[in-house]
UniProtKB/TrEMBL annotation:
Entry annotated with the keyword Phosphoprotein: yes
Domain Response regulatory: from-to ranges: 4-115
Protein name (Swiss-Prot/TrEMBL): LytR/AlgR family response regulator transcription factor
UniProt lineage: Bacteria, Pseudomonadati, Bacteroidota, Flavobacteriia, Flavobacteriales
Domain HTH LytTR-type: 137-241
Keywords annotated in UniProt: Phosphoprotein
InterPro entries: CheY-like_superfamily, LytR-like, LytTR_DNA-bd_dom, Sig_transdc_resp-reg_receiver
UniProt keyword Ion transport present: no
SUPFAM superfamilies tied to this protein: CheY-like
Length: 241
């Protein structure tokens, strides 16, 4: 297993410390480093790493803002000198949290977690150009943030220039068009019900005939979605009705 990693960290000393620690782990390939969020974003978009070592407290933009900018979030290990971020980092579903200065034993434990996570993802999903059920997206709506798996999202809905995302009782807004989102979604689970909505078929509770050859779906959270007439034919064929 060769794991591609990048470091986004404003301190050159801290970057060098991480590079020194990585020398003991030959299966981790460091493919780049960046000293701020904007450069980190460009690096991640260009290299598509498996693993991100991410500092939280950086000038201008912090590590959480970088996650917000990404469509597909790599496995993330936060690194910081401030222990007050520890609990918050796990609220973002970070795989691990390393407090500077980082010792060899603690770093090795984090790497083992990374290997286990990647091996499980490869076994479950294989490689794909699109997002998978276990891919994570970062959503920030006001002061609240989530790192949510694609497979946990029940449906999407256009609201002006935003898209509302429904998952686990939450309904935050994402500043992306529904078409942008649809291009990335795994085709096996998600279905375009109409111009305004995409549903995860795993979260459909009931399907009933509706007017003019349409269908009406009731989602597990009791939201109702009307399937357009054209899409109703496709839905019936797909679901073998």
């Amino acid at each position: 297993m060769s794991i591609k990693a990048v470091i986004v960290e404003d301190s050159r000393l801290a970057r060098n410390e991480l590079k020194e620690l990585l020398k003991s782990h030959s299966d981790i390939e460091l493919i780049g480093e960046a000293e701020n969020v904007d450069l980190g974003y460009e690096l991640i978009q260009k290299t598509h790493p498996d693993l991100l070592f991410l500092d939280i407290n950086m000038p201008e933009k912090d590590g959480f803002e970088l996650l917000e900018m990404l469509d597909d979030v790599p496995i993330t290990v936060f690194t910081t000198a401030f222990d007050e971020y520890a609990i918050k980092s796990f609220e973002y579903n970070a795989l691990d949290y390393l407090l500077k200065p980082i010792n060899d034993k603690r770093f090795a434990a984090a790497i083992e977690k990374v290997k286990s996570k990647i091996a499980a993802k490869e076994e479950e999903n294989g490689s794909s150009a699109k997002l998978t059920e276990s891919s994570q997206i970062f959503i920030k709506d006001g002061e609240q943030c989530w790192l949510v798996k694609i497979g946990e999202i029940s449906h999407f809905e256009i609201v002006g220039n935003y898209t509302r995302v429904f998952f686990q009782g939450h309904r935050p807004m994402l500043y992306k068009s529904l078409n942008q989102i649809e291009e990335k979604l795994p085709e096996g689970s998600f279905f375009r019900a109409n111009r305004q909505q995409i549903v995860n078929t795993n979260f459909i509770a009931t399907v009933v005939p509706w007017f003019n050859g349409k269908l009406k779906l009731t989602m597990q959270n009791d939201d109702e979605v009307e399937v357009s007439r054209r899409q109703s034919y496709l839905f019936k064929d797909r679901m073998s009705f």
